[in-house]
Design a protein that fits this description.
Largest interface: A-B, 68 and 56 residues
Number of domains of chain A: 2
Number of domains of chain C: 2
Shape of chain A: flat
Structural class of chain A: mainly alpha
Structural class of chain C: alpha/beta
CATH topology of the largest domain in chain C: D-Maltodextrin-Binding Protein, domain 2
Number of strands of chain A: 0
CATH class of the largest domain in chain C: Alpha Beta
Low-confidence stretches of chain C: 15-26
Strand content of chain C: 15-25%
CATH superfamily of the largest domain in chain C: Bordetella uptake gene, domain 1
Number of helices of chain A: 5
Number of strands of chain C: 9
Mean pLDDT of chain C: 82
Radius of gyration of chain A: 24 Å
Oligomer: heterotrimer
Helix content of chain A: over 70%
Amino acid sequence: MKNPTDVLSGIFVLIICGIGAYSISSLPEPTSLDLYGPASFPKMIIALLAFCGILLIIKGIKTPPSKDYWKNPHVIRHLCYFIGLFYAYLASLTYLGEFFITLQDIYIPSGTAFCITTTLFLLIALPLLGRKKTLENIIVSVTTTACLFGVFGVFFKVLLP
Amino acid sequence: MLDVIFQGIMNAISFDSLLANAIGVTLGIIFGALPGLTAAMGVALLIPLTFGMPPVEAFSALLGMYVGAVYGGCITAILVGTPGTVAAAATMLEGPALTARGESRRALEMATVASFIGGIISAIALITVAPLLAQAAMAFSAPEYFAVAVFGLTIVASLSSGQVLKGFIAALTGLLVATIGLDPVTGDMRNTFDNPNLFNGLSLVPVLVGLFAVSQVFITIEDVIKGVVLKGGNLASKGLSLRDIYANTINLIRSSAIGTFIGIIPATGVSAAAFLAYAEAKRYSKTPEQYGKGCLEGIAATESSNNAVCGGALIPLLTLGVPGDIITAIMLGALMIQGLTPGPLLFVEHPATVYGLFAAFIISNVLMLILGLIAVRGAGKIIAIPGSLLMPIVITLCVVGGYAINNSTFDLLIVAIFGTLGYIMTKCEIPQPPFLLAMILAPIAETNFRRALSISQNDFSIFYTSPITMVILTVSLVILIKPIYTSIKGMIKQ
Amino acid sequence: MKIARNLLFSILCVSMLSIGVPSVAKAAYPDRPINIIIPFGPGGAVDIAARILAEHFQTKYDITLNVVCKAGGAGAPAMLDVAKARPDGYTYGFPALATFSATPQIKKTGYNLESFKSVAQITNMWLSISVSADSGITSVKQLIEMAKKEPGKYNFATHGALSTQRIFMGNILQAYPGINFPHIAFTSGHDVSTSLLAGKHITAGFGVTTNQKPYVLSGDFTMIGVSSPERLPEFPDVPTFVEQFGEDKKYVFASSHGLIAPRRTPDANIAIMSNLLKEALADPSVQEKFTKAGLSTDYLPTEEFQTVMNDMWVYIGNSLDELGLN
């Protein structure tokens, strides 16, 4: 196996085809009125995609990669921490916002969840990427959040969580 | 006749109108530059503010916002690698590479000048031949739209030379993802997994922000972790030279023409025009292998065509009352509020206003050139900010933008997923632009194909009796076959 | 370690700030901005109507109305937001009742009619069908009879696969069994008008009077039917469906749009909002702006609007059953 990346990509593509095929299996067949029903186009795409996926796997077995993108595992691991932090930020933003809405008696202004989670996210992300100066981090986090809130929440009246 | 034109121009260059225009352009550039904020959003937010203004002044502001926003996206696309708007997605193909080479200023100035030229050429088309072009656009019905969409999809083949197989996979996945949502003809739900948020499919802006912006942030962070300093901290001293502009003359004219025409055809998009112009520029270029590595021609092509769409889209709006794209659809509402009913009657009943609008549009482009060149000087400072500081800020901006388009926290999930997906795709050398293009064009292609069939009651002759359709489809086939053929030949040789 | 320290610091800051946040709002309603969620995109007719009202509320009563556009999903995500919102009178929805009734009866959306209470009706749009002026067709009855004689030759277009207009036409066509008068789905009212203007493949466009008015005025379209109970003053030559097909409730249809609230919203707040709307919609400058935008002001108070809502729900439900669309 000369190019594991390609082979894995090919397999991933086939998995997507599988999910797609399952999802459209519940769609009705084309009625007598139309030659092409709702399922026709997706079916065609999935067939072509599966074909390409197989080709990719074959290519991955035969040709070596031109450039190795996965060179530094520790860099990628560090990046995964960041990505994990990002997902945590988004999740907390969503759920904290919903939680505030369910609090019947206390009124919490819109945008609070956003301000809290964004500030926290920035405060954690900056040192994660190597910025050591704590005071600078705090100032940047708070100012950025304040600017974003000001521009979007206040000026454009977007209803932030 | 002349006095009416004169009156219109006077309205457009009155102090109030100029001020409105300038504010519109400035806001537009800012909106365009910030990822997640779209031109449509900007125009929609401005409309209530224009309620009390006289028509030409109101439209000075709206047109300024439109032109500025379509242009503004290129700033972040070139400097930070994250497109500010859909229109700038194609600029991503060359912009970041130029910045990495230290030629960011040259790229930005070319983008500004190209946008200006695109706008002016479409303005000329608007003023001189608007009714004629509109009539031609009316000849486009379902089969023709299908052909145009197919033509756009074949651009995929030329965009991914050297990676044809992976380009196809990206495009096909984009096509598949585009089928999520309400079936356009029968109304069944496809691939929605019973989640109401997916009923209308994936919203384009969160996908764009995730796929291009967030993934780019992740990739840049890798460099940050490794300690690589982002090049261009010394904002390139090399600016745009007149020779650069002159060398691209034909490119600029051709790209602007493409943009104008795509703009005229209702319901086709800005990014389709940009990608198309890029592909054509590459085909006619003397140095096609430079494309993708930081080629000024590419920027000239994408930026001039996306601004040319602005003028093009105004043509059907004013002459027929039919909006050329989503932003002009919003402007249609604004026209109605002002009591102006677009259509052939508009030219007869309110000629002064119409000429005022033309003048305002030209002024918007001029202001965009001036303000853009000023903005470019300052914007370069952005890359002086170290990546470890800049990237988290950019990503929070992406989050707000992705949320704000639909006030939807589900869209945040889309941003995250597509950000991760985009990152993995880059690592696996699967190109992203075909995915985006396919996602945009697939609905047009499929919907019109099935609509054409339902009109003709399953008679395929509706396709081959239309000369426009056949011509476009044949050309698409030719463009499609060539790279596949070369690629297969290459694989056999190995 | 550094991360933990920053985290602790920020938690301290935030908790200090939140001590100052007022806990209960006991002032007169409304004392904060009110959110109106509309399931449409910016710049559409409903968005414009909402913004006209917002401007009026701001200048006249100093009440801020936030217009929140949440398009897509056939209205489902927007209405779900309203259903799940805090029922304190500060969040409302402004849907088109027809789509509002259709989507939950076709697919599970997480809400239904009982999740909401009516507040007031704001505007009505009449359905209208037009043909190209040079087709020579003068009434929709004539068109249908022509379609009966030559099956498949004529068609009609609407703005969506599940559009109200398609459902309405389905009801009309029940009187003509075996007819082949196919429906062509487009994606927006503008697309329908564009296609009809081109005159190539589409015989008739079925939309609302607001969208088709400019083309009728310019002479490109002939309007051949309208769903109002009597002829409209702005279109005196256009026969109504009732005139053409008979006095039956199903030939009259008003696409009603109005404000709805989450079910547990206090009635007192709803009454205040409803009265404010009544005054606003009676104000001459508001009416003038509505007319300029091609809309009409049709205020209906809470109980009557609730009746309209209930009737619409049943009407759409029955039509969907008969068309086999659910």
